[in-house]
Amino acid sequence: DDAFAAVADVILHETVHATQFIPDQTYFNEGAATYIADALTTVWLGERFGVDSPQLATWLANEATRLARVERLLATYQELETLYGSDASRADKLDRKAAIIDRAVADLGLVRRPNNATLIELRTYRAGRGVFAELQQACGGDLRRLIAAVKSVVAAEFSTSLQEDLHPALAPAAGRCRAGKEGDGEGHALRS
């Protein structure tokens, strides 16, 4: 049963929003909240139930399954993005779109058929996972330092509203983290 983990993950996700939120930066806000909440849920389950607990094992197994499904659906999003940008006729695009989604449904055994909106939502919440993993690595793998680095990010570090590529905006935070100054700057200090 993943119920404890699911509730903890939602609470932690919303707590990240309450402590760091940059207007007009949905990819950053949701990516950070999702990555940090998932990591903190793992820590909480280990501390609450034990590192060898069935609760933690279930969470980790379910998270691995979720991540694999997310990767497959993000690939579907990318296929559709390429298709939409092509010179194919509208009729051809609609036929190929149906085939792309049919493959994802079959591959994942989906009950509900994804559409553009659900795929965009998934991309918003999960596509930044890699950049936050890189930031955590720059912070020596330390989750507390990662959180402080995320909280040190300021709006001025983004070049556009709704910036999808987070690497340029997070590069200063990674540098601060490597230098051990992740709480410096205009961001907020880590609250215990």
Question: What are the key terms here?
Answer:
192 residues; mainly alpha
Write the layout of secondary structure elements.
Blueprint: H1 3-19, H2 26-49, H3 54-84, H4 90-108, H5 116-126, H6 129-138, H7 143-151, H8 167-178
Helix pairs in contact: 1-2, 2-3, 2-5, 2-7, 3-4, 3-5, 6-7, 6-8, 7-8
Structural notes for this entry:
The protein is mainly α. It is 69% helix and 0% strand. It has eight helices and no strands. It has helices at residues 3-19, 26-49, 54-84, 90-108, 116-126, 129-138, 143-151, 167-178. Helix 1 (3-19) crosses helix 2 (26-49). The longest helix has 31 residues, at 54-84. The radius of gyration is 19 Å and the shape is flat. Residues 184-192 have low confidence and may be disordered.
Give the termini separation.
29 Å
Helix-residue proportion: 55-70%
Main pleated sheet: none
The SSE order reads HHHHHHHH
Class per helix and strand makeup: mainly alpha
Report the portion of residues in β strands: under 5%
Number of helices: 8
Mean pLDDT comes to 92
Q: Care to count the β-strands?
A: 0
